[in-house]
Amino acid sequence: MADNDKPSEPASEIEASLPPNTPENPQPTLFRVEKSDLYEHTQHIRTFPKNSDVKAPVVGEFQNLDKLNDTRDEYECTKTDPKGEKKIDENGFLLGGRKYIITTFTLPGRGKKLYVLGTEAAKFLNHRDAFVLFNRFKQLYKIKANDEERKFLEDCNFTISKIKSRSVAVTTAKNLFMLFGARIVKSGKRVEDDYWEDAAIEQGFKPTDQVFPLEKGKSEVVKPKVAAPKPVPKVPKVNLVTPMPPLEDRRDYLLASSSGNPAQAIPGQGITGGIELATVATIPKYKQDSTNTVKHRSILSTLSSNNSSTSLASQAAANQIPINDAFAGEKSTGGLPYYNSNVLQRIMDEDSEKIREIEYLHGTVETNNYISLSRKPRVKQWQYYWQVKSGAPIGLLESQKDEYFKEQEESLNKVQEETIYNEFLYCDQVIKKRRKPNPNYLNHGNINGLKPPYIEKEPTPALEQAMPQHIAQPYGSVPQVAAQMGSTTQQEYYQRARPNDPYAQYTATERGIPQAATAQQIYEAQRSGIQFQR
Predict the structure, then answer these.
(1) Which of 19, 246, 249, 468 is the right S-S partner for 27, CB 3.0 to 4.6 Å?
(2) How much is the pTM?
(3) Nearest alpha-carbon partner for 58 in 196, 190, 187, 174
(4) What is the separation of C-alpha 408 from the centre of its chain, rounded to a whole number of angstroms?
(5) How many C-beta atoms surround the C-beta of residue 117 within 10 A?
């Protein structure tokens, strides 16, 4: 490998950072294709169909094959494209953020011009070897590497014949780009990455045309490994309980699923993209399943059986939790701070009953943490739940809402017609089909109001009885009008009735009441002699 390997940079920066590479001080540079670029290029190729016929633009004559240029590494160029010159410079460095998908290099003592090994170019362009490539494309000038250049290529781990009588052929990168264009560019696009852009458009090529042939069964580039993250500091091992439904519920769930009946599940749980409560809320586990003894209970029973302070100190020293510097931070997973080794001794000396209180407070803290953590995903869970119930997919953004429902409405309004011959009527019948949204679909619910239909209707307010004694009548009872009341008193009574009954509306005559009255009021008024007209 060469001493000066350069990473991928903008062409202007790369060319400016290269050494002079003069014959007196040769300093060649190798530009390898990185694995990440090769992987992205492979993913771009896989977007096109396999085994398809890939066509390339026909490049006309643009060189004088009888004469070489001043540097004697290319044929004299007689024709150029102004748009193509904006994509590559005179030394072969691509411009506009483009990268070669094949390895390029500068040869010792030949300045900053880029070259490509003939065997590498032939292999990438699906030719048998460099001999076939140079014979088929006469515009490519074959440069034979000298001993110094051959040694440089061997140091770069290129596959070169050990037989010195066989020449090593190289060619300039610019000459290769002028012939093949997007074919040697990473994720190259037709027309946009071709040197002869106008000629490609005249021949009917578009930027969406396939450039790279993809053969079925050809080995693909493996995705490069990502660097491992930095090691996470050690944390104390805390046994945690994963919240799960009881065994009976799980058996019922499996039995219902096997029989095809809908299973009752917690709203929001099990939805793709939702938040499982077990991943955000955990409960500390005090008991090991593999043992029958419980550590904290055995400690408390031993401490409560011995009353002497000496025995308490000895028991505490044997059962205290080890503290070292391996713990990260100052608090445990549950949020409680770590304590020093002398805290337990001081607590037992002051009040041995305080140990039970500390354990109770610890359980209280853990319970509060669990409740707090369960509140956070609740709003999001219910949003997921009702989003699915309304017929919208999970993950729909606010900016995509209008476009999504517009498409759904168009699909609902679409009518499919099907013509069927009716054998009984001896005629063709046209059957029209249209999608009908279910009640759960958004804006198509079966609830037309702020309250569900099963809510009881509010009762009609009772009439305010205008009795001479001002006695309030019970709701639903027939108003009792005294026989000795005259027509004037009855008219005042019915004038105070509330015109809010929407079921039976009538209008009184000139002797009656100048406002709406109910059927019950009309019945009582007719008994009193007041005439009404519908």
Answers:
(1) 19
(2) 0.42
(3) 196
(4) 22
(5) 23
Tokens 């240029």 correspond to 69
Q: Which 8-state DSSP code applies to residue 337?
A: B
Most confidently predicted of 31-40, 306-315, 345-354: 31-40
Exposed / middle / buried, residue 77 (Cβ in 10 Å: 0-12, 13-18, 19+): middle
d(CA 31, CA 53) in angstroms, rounded, equals 31
Count CB atoms within 10 A of the CB of residue 374: 14
Residue 340: pLDDT over 90: no
CB 496 within 8 A of CB 464: yes
> How far apart, in whole angstroms, are the C-alpha atoms of residue 118 and residue 107?
14
Q: Where are the beta strands (DSSP E) in 285-374?
A: none
Angle at 205 between CA 199 and CA 206, to 5 degrees: 120
**Torsion angle defined by CA atoms of residues 140, 145, 150 and 155, in that order, rounded to the nearest 10 degrees:** -40
Q: Which residues contact 401 (CB under 8 A, 6 or more apart)?
A: none
Strand partners for 420:
429
Q: Which residues contact 390 (CB under 8 A, 6 or more apart)?
A: 440, 441, 442
Strand partners, 115: 105, 172
Q: What is the residue type of 217?
A: G
Question: CB–CB of 525/517 below 8 Å?
Answer: yes
Helices (H), ranges, 102-184: 118-124, 130-136, 147-155, 173-180
**Helices within 161-308 (DSSP H only):** 173-180, 197-202, 247-259, 277-280, 295-305
Residue 244 has a CB neighbour count (10 Å cut-off) of 9
Rounded CA-CA distance 495/506 in Å is 13
DSSP line for 200-240: HHHTT--TTS--S---TT---PPPPPPPPPPPPPP-----E
Total length of the chain: 534
Alpha-carbon Rg for the chain in angstroms: 45
Report d(CA 72, CA 236) in Å as an integer.
71
In angstroms, the CA 284 to CA 492 distance is: 76
The helix/strand count (H/E) of the chain reads as 17, 14
**pLDDT (tens digit per residue) in 61-100:** 889 888 998 888 899 999 999 999 999 998 999 998 899 9
Residue 327, class by beta-carbon neighbours within 10 Å (0-12 exposed, 13-18 middle, 19+ buried)?
middle
